[in-house]
Amino acid sequence: MNYLITGGSGFIGSHLVETLLKNGHSVINIDNFDDFYDYKIKIENTLESVAEKRDFSFQEKEIDIQKLIFQTSSPNYQLYYQDIRDKNGLEKIFKKHKIDLVIHLAALAGVRPSIERPLEYEEVNVKGTMNLWELCNEFGVKKFVNASSSSVYGNNEKIPFSETDNVDNPISPYAATKKCTEILGHVYHHLYKIDIINLRFFTVYGPRQRPDLAIHKFTKIISENDEIPFYGDGSTSRDYTFVDDIIDGIEKSIQYLENHENVYEIINLGESEVISLTEMLSTIEENLGKKSRKNLLPMQAGDVNKTNADISKAKTLIGYQPITNFQNGIKIFVEWFLKK
Questions:
Q1: Residues 335 and 264 sit within 8 Å (Cβ to Cβ)
Q2: Whose CB among 67, 136, 234, 256 lies 3.0–4.6 Å from 141's, allowing a Cys bridge?
């Protein structure tokens, strides 16, 4: 199969690229190497995902990425330095390749930054996604996996969070953009018969995790003996999901779409295990063999108190079965971090 992945040089995307290539598929990776964090990390992700280790000078972004594109091109893998807001640029890729299915992971991520840059989040996450659906309709691509987020649940009082729960009360622009893509996806499914699975990811972690996310950030800060910015009293909690389990859920969603017609689904992908901020920190400390120093701060606007996934639909519909508990996942992550 020939898969188009947006954001294929990011954290989740690079793992998916690696898995699909190992399974004998062809992959088209679209990524704009956004400077939300150091783009050199995405270059490293890209090389790891195609099992290549090369040296780059990192002198000028565009020059280095063009070199990366040249060095990673193969019959089964194509990398495009492309922004999803640019519909004309995307159209050239759709014209050049016969695409069987799109896995859309690219987005401006992060709750807190979205409060500072809401219009940019709308442009990338909503308009960019609509550009892809417009082109899918134009070029006859009828299968689409869309990355949504557990943030759409806001401060939902019903635990665990189910796909049938009301999500009309997001508390950040990021969450609102993700809900928008779910709603608009139904429009494209209804009007143009594009089969769509929306996957609500619950706090994904593991090797290659983005450096701005708490587990990676805390691990780095503790290892450098600096103070951790610790928001709230430590009781906030998350359903942390190991990246290998997320990749398994994406693969199973792809298989479901390929074997079924008239599909529009929203599916939670979580671990169904709730870990408090205090427990998360102590698990990292244990694996690093070091204690942290905390800078106690008030809760930040847009942060939810708790996430917890009801994954019964994922288990029943696509056969999803997460296998990595938090303690083992952190052990794997810290080992990866220390080898970097």
A1: no
A2: 136
What are the φ/ψ torsions at residue 272 (nearest 5 degrees)? 60, 35
Contacts of 256 (CB under 8 A, 6+ apart): 197, 263, 317, 318
Among candidate residues 174, 205, 256, 320, the one labeled active-site is 174
CATH number at residue 98: 3.40.50.720
pLDDT for 69: 86
- Asked if pLDDT for residue 60 goes beyond 80, the answer is no
Measured CA to CA, the distance from residue 210 to residue 252 in angstroms comes to 24
d(C-alpha 213, C-alpha 229), whole Å: 12
The parent domain of residue 196 ranges over 2-202+243-269+310-322
User: Using an 8 Å Cβ cutoff, are 256 and 318 in contact?
Assistant: yes
Angle at 268 between CA 161 and CA 114, to 5 degrees: 80
Closest CA relative to residue 311, chosen from 275, 279, 271: 271
Judge whether 213 lies within some domain.
no
- Do the domain assignments include residue 223? no
Token pair in block for residue 197:
């699975």
Chain mean position to CA 283: 23
* pLDDT number for residue 303: 78
Number of domains in the chain: 1
- Examine residue 153 and state whether it is found in any structural domain, yes or no: yes
Poorest-pLDDT segment among 19-28, 147-156, 295-304, 315-324: 295-304
Torsion from C-alpha of 303, 309, 313, 317, nearest 10 degrees: 90
pLDDT digits (tens, 9 = 90+) for 138-167: 999 999 999 999 999 999 989 999 999 999
Whether the pTM exceeds 0.85: the reply is yes
Sheet strand arrangement including 26-31: 77-81, 26-31, 2-6, 101-104, 143-149, 195-201, 264-269
Q: What is the model's pLDDT at position 304?
A: 82
* DSSP secondary structure of 21-63: HHTT-EEEEEE---TTS-HHHHHHHHHHHTT-------SSHHH
Cα-atom radius of gyration of the chain, to the nearest Å? 19
187 belongs to a structural domain: yes
Mean of the pLDDT values across residues 265-273?
95
Backbone angles phi, psi at 153, to 5 degrees: -75, -15
